[in-house]
């Protein structure tokens, strides 16, 4: 299916206000984290309470445009000196007698990992930004909070599933229904693509990988008939994932016109070159 991609230049709060209620199936986004990231247009340094209040405003619009069985995958990271931000934001979104959202799942997006094999080797894979510190270890993960209106949205657990290591489990457990696929769980190792030139290959300070959004599309499980929204489009990683997944539509907003131009270039290249895998 050819994805209908709509890119809007401007503030997502105002932009989402123009969208009809209840039409979006899936929201995957990574807002600014208020950690002083050097974006082109947005100033990423607000007073903490003002930042949370702003997040509650745009999140309320996200909720309004979501269908009742929609999923909202919210990617948030932290920095070692500011480790509580993801949790403070999550609490604000889910707090009170009438919370905006219910936290249905918490995923750990693992960017880099080292695994000791049974043979005694250590395999290290993925990419991370090294931290030069005596106090803090390298930060190799971010959160992806899965928020829904009801807490009861059905997912396609096996849509993002993995084969069994021990094939005897397939016949041993009735719930497998004979299929060599199990739920992957909530630790997602999704590395960034290796790039040669930062300003040319990833001209934005805070992107997520296409594979992260594709995983959300798969686990959401509505197939081609998925309307995806990313209110903080950046350079269009979610748009690319929508196109690669062949879903029906994508809507993105960003306040920076240059990032939207990069999005258009990436989408053009996508149609000219074979899809990369992550
Ligand atoms: C963390 S980045 C998103 C990156 C994106 N996930 C990607 O992979 O390219 C956050 C983006 O939000 C944009 N932004 C900040 N405030 C905004 C607003 N009020 N409305 C729309 N976009 C905004 C910034 O310009 C920035 O590109």
UniProtKB/TrEMBL annotation:
The keyword S-adenosyl-L-methionine applies. Residues 24-263 form the DNA methylase N-4/N-6 domain. Its EC number is 2.1.1.-. InterPro entries: DNA_methylase_N4/N6 (IPR002941), MeTrfase_CN4_CS (IPR017985), RM_Methyltransferase (IPR001091), SAM-dependent_MTases_sf (IPR029063). It catalyses: a 2'-deoxycytidine in DNA + S-adenosyl-L-methionine = an N(4)-methyl-2'-deoxycytidine in DNA + S-adenosyl-L-homocysteine + H(+). SUPFAM superfamilies: S-adenosyl-L-methionine-dependent methyltransferases (SSF53335). One of its GO terms (molecular function) is DNA binding. GO terms for biological process: DNA restriction-modification system; methylation. This is Methyltransferase. It comes from Oceaniferula flava.
